Amino acid sequence: YQWAVNKVMGGLTQEEMKEAERLAKEWRKAKPLAEVQAKTASQKAQKGEKYLKEFAEEMWRQCGMRV
Length: 67
Description:
Number of domains: 2
Low-confidence stretches: none
Structural class: mainly alpha
Number of helices: 3
Distance between the termini: 39 Å
């Protein structure tokens, strides 16, 4: 990955580099839409529940412990 990034960044002209820096600053300041934030939060919560369930089942299986 890093090799590819270096290859692309190394091939940019000064103007392209300035434009890339400007876009990076703009994107850092911008926030995703509320709908996107809600969808992402929901997906993360579902994954968290899945991992917690797997952990609890594994602790029961290996140690006989309830979590």
